[in-house]
Write a structure and sequence with these properties.
The chain folds into four domains: 78 residues, no CATH class; 72 residues; 77 residues; 29 residues. The protein is elongated and about 150 Å long. By secondary structure, it is mostly helical. The model has no long low-confidence stretch (mean pLDDT 90). A hairpin with a 6-residue loop joins β4 and β5. The protein has a three-stranded antiparallel sheet with strand order 1-2-3, with helices on both faces. A two-stranded antiparallel sheet has the order 4-5. It is built from seven helices and five strands. α4 packs across α5.
Length: 321
């Protein structure tokens, strides 16, 4: 007589015994919905027990369920634990805060922070209990569940933040809607009149520069005429006066209230040879971070579009998400 439990026992030892459709094997298993499943024979009849939901009654249904759970054996003790209302070893429960722990007096953000810190303590204790390193699938499941619990707390905190912030956002939006058009109108007309001033100021600057050049030229001609007259009269030439170069003209400014408006000088450096400039930056021992970041973004965009630009290598990084 064959041992109907042999498949399950060998599976618990890490083996993967062969199985064929239409041949369920007695044992305790876990399905994809995290239900605990028990399959056994009552006389000649295959029977099944599940911890929640629909329980198969017919052999073909039991065999179909076995096909889903046969590679996920669990111990009988764990089955009974789950059946009696317990949780799976990798389950993570968010610590409750309530009456008796003085947390009800905390504001909502501090209460949630306390829950997160409680969860941090639990996660650290668990990680220490397994030697500080994930070594099994059960460990990996528990770590993922801890991450999921932190994610739930993150969403809860973000939702509370948005709810608390919403009336302030609406009030700020109303203030912006009321005042921005007024501010923009004044700013627009400020720029308008400054442009009108700029036309005058540039013309006035040119006029002053031309006047300074004219005076310098008259001074030079007067000196030459004096020297020529002295020579005609047989007199020694007059001591030449130093002819000064035209001094920079005084900046053009205007306005008698508040801040005066004046011409200002702005220096811009324009890239006229992009390949040369880019090559220079790339050759630096420490290229500017913003240059590297711009190159990274462009490379990712081109790569995502299917391009294969020179100097770019595709790298695949795996990470937990």
């Amino acid at each position: 007589m064959s041992d109907i439990w042999e498949f399950w026992r060998r599976s618990l030892l890490g083996e993967k015994p062969e199985t064929t459709p239409g041949t369920p094997h007695a044992g305790f298993y876990r399905d994809r919905s995290s239900r605990a499943v028990a399959i056994w024979k009552d006389g000649e009849q295959w029977v099944c027990s599940v911890t929640s939901g629909y329980c198969p009654r017919h052999k073909d249904e039991i065999d179909e369920l076995f096909g889903f759970v046969c590679r996920a054996p669990i111990t009988r003790e764990l089955f009974m634990h789950i059946k009696n209302g317990g949780g799976w070893p990798e389950d993570v429960q968010i610590p409750e805060r309530g009456a008796g722990d003085n947390s009800q007096s905390l504001p909502p953000h501090e209460l949630l922070a306390a829950q997160i810190n409680d969860m941090i303590d639990e996660a650290r204790k668990w990680l220490a209990s397994i030697g500080g390193k994930i070594a099994t699938q059960e460990h990996a499941d528990k770590a993922a569940n801890f991450a999921g619990a932190f994610g739930e707390l993150e969403k809860e905190a973000d939702k509370a933040r948005k709810n608390e912030k919403e009336p302030h956002d609406k009030a700020a939006k109303a203030v912006q809607a009321k005042w921005l058009p007024v501010i923009e109108l004044a700013a627009e007309k400020k720029s308008w009149l400054k442009k009108e001033f700029e036309k005058f100021a540039l013309a006035e600057k040119r006029r002053r520069e031309e006047e300074a050049r004219r005076l310098a030229e008259e001074q030079r001609k007067a000196a030459e005429e004096a020297a020529r007259a002295a020579a005609e009269n047989g007199e020694p030439p007059p001591q030449p006066e130093a002819i000064e170069e035209p001094a920079p003209v005084k900046n053009v400014a205007a306005g008698t209230r508040g801040t005066r408006v004046a011409l200002k000088t702005r220096v811009d450096y324009v890239v006229i040879d992009l390949p040369a400039f880019a090559a220079h930056l790339a050759a630096l021992e420490n290229p500017p971070p913003e240059f590297l970041e711009a190159c990274r973004k462009i490379a990712n965009r081109l790569g995502a579009a299917g391009a294969n630009p020179p100097g770019v290598e595709k790298r695949v990084t795996e990470f937990a998400a």
